């Protein structure tokens, strides 16, 4: 087992890793930017190293600085969390070159699954159902038009290096495709310095359902059932739940088997999720694979009693996974609490927290790095807390979430707490009647 582990991240996920490491007897090293000097992960770690100024590119994304921090503190492993360098194959490879274990898959595995066009080709070879689309990258608008005619409209253009909904455009007809092509490529180039595109059939009324998996270096893979991530705004998840209210036992078995097949095919090591689009007829199609721990992993932990961070570290240290699969007992919901003003188009709201009251009680979990007097910097993602409620039934989990949101008080900044309160009291949501298009018709009145 590792003796010292550096967390190449910040905020709640850094705290989450520190807590598990402490339980495992592993010393921790926090890295931080000058904007995060007063962050809890800096205070709770055994050691802390400042790696640069506030901009991510100069600190949390600065590979030489992170590696230097690991070397001067004699870290033998690095946990990347999510975001930042967590799916950076170059970083994984550099860790290996410096004899530092990257808590996650190898650089080659990340390359196979990180590029969406390559991942789709790989999954087709593995026999995993994929959305109909171009065989590979689409180099010109003329080729895109030809491919769209084969696939049939509506189609969606996607940046192969994409993420967070950037570099994606929908076209319902050939007339719309040219404008979509130019807009998607321009956005992709600005966001990822890569404007390579591929084309897919647009699945109408889809659910976004992901299967949590964990694999070891010996080829064993377990799945831990599904999470429904369909409540999204601009392709950013707002709320997740498990089990999915759309799921049946037969569909879970099929999707779980497909996710395991995908992981086994690439000899996947670590935790990850195989993401699927599921249409209204319960046909499912591979969308992408996230080769890291997910923001929403706590709801899976709550219903299968499985510490994903602990097992992730153990797998990286060479231990085996059981190969058995896990199924949910009870129901768990996560609301992402962001420092944003939902009544002003979710405009970021950094600032100082002057009053904080967190809810509690049976089946309530809060993963957060905030505290009374903490100043939220403007430089990073606006998520400041994850509120998770777990109960025997979905109805009880929703009622518990409603109660907790009423108790959750954060003053000094705007947050998405009132938005989530309205969301979980929506009749369609309560009935489990939602798709990824839910937010296009949901009206938040503030």
Account of the protein in words:
The chain contains 15 helices and 22 strands. The protein folds into three domains: 4-103, Rossmann fold (3-Layer(aba) Sandwich); 132-201, ATP-grasp fold, A domain (Dna Ligase, domain 1, 2-Layer Sandwich); 207-441, ATP-grasp fold, B domain (D-amino Acid Aminotransferase, Chain A, domain 1). It has 446 residues and is α+β, with helices and mostly antiparallel strands. Strands 13-12-9-10-11-14-21-19 form an eight-stranded antiparallel beta sheet, with helices on both faces. Strands 3-2-1-4-5 form a five-stranded parallel beta sheet. Helix 5 packs across helix 6. The protein has helices spanning 11-24, 40-44, 63-72, 89-97, 107-114, 116-126, 141-151, 174-192, 249-265, 297-304, 308-316, 394-407, 417-424, 427-430, 438-441, and strands at residues 4-7, 27-33, 47-52, 77-79, 101-102, 155-159, 168-171, 197-201, 207-215, 221-233, 236-242, 270-278, 284-290, 331-338, 340-341, 347-348, 351-352, 355-357, 364-368, 375-376, 383-391, 409-411. 34% of the residues lie in helices and 26% in strands.
């Amino acid at each position: 087992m590792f003796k010292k582990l550096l967390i190449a991240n910040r905020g709640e996920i850094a705290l989450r890793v520190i807590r598990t490491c402490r339980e495992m007897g592993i010393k921790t090293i926090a890295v931080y930017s000058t904007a995060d000097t007063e962050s809890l992960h800096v205070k709770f770690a055994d050691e802390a190293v400042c790696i640069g100024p506030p901009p991510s590119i100069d600190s949390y994304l600065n590979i030489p600085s992170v590696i230097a921090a690991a070397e001067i503190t004699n870290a033998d492993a690095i946990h990347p969390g999510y975001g930042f360098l967590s799916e950076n194959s170059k970083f994984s490879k550099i860790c290996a070159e410096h004899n530092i274990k990257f808590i996650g898959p190898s650089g080659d595995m990340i390359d196979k699954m990180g590029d969406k066009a390559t991942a789709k080709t790989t999954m087709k070879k593995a026999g995993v159902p994929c959305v109909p689309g171009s065989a590979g990258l689409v180099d010109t608008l003329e080729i895109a038009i030809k491919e769209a005619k084969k696939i049939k409209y509506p189609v969606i253009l996607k940046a192969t290096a994409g993420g967070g909904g950037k570099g994606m455009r929908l076209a319902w007809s050939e007339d719309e495709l040219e404008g979509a092509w130019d807009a998607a490529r321009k956005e992709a180039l600005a966001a990822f310095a890569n404007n390579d595109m591929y084309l897919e059939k647009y699945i109408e009324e889809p659910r976004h359902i992901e299967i949590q998996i964990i694999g070891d270096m010996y080829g064993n893979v377990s799945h831990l059932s599904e999470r429904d991530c369909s409540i999204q705004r601009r392709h950013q998840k707002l709320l997740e739940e498990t089990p999915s209210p759309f799921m049946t036992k037969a569909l879970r078995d099929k999707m779980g088997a497909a996710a395991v097949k995908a992981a086994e095919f690439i000899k996947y090591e670590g935790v990850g999720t195989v993401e699927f689009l599921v249409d209204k007829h319960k046909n499912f199609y591979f969308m992408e694979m996230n080769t890291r721990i997910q923001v929403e992993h706590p709801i899976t932990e709550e219903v299968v009693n499985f510490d994903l961070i602990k097992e992730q570290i153990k797998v990286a240290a060479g231990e085996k996974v059981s190969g058995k699969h896990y199924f949910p007992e009870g129901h768990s919901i996560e609301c992402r609490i962001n420092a944003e003003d939902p009544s002003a188009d979710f405009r970021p709201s950094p600032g100082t927290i002057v009053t904080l009251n967190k809810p509690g009680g049976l089946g309530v979990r809060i993963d957060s790095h905030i505290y009374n007097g903490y100043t939220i910097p403007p430089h990073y993602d606006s998520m400041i807390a994850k509120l998770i409620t777990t109960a025997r039934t979905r109805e009880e989990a929703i009622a518990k979430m409603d109660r907790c949101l009423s108790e959750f008080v954060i003053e000094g900044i705007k947050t998405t707490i009132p938005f989530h309160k309205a969301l979980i009291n929506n009749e369609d949501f309560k009935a489990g009647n939602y798709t990824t298009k839910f937010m296009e018709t949901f009206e938040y009145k503030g």
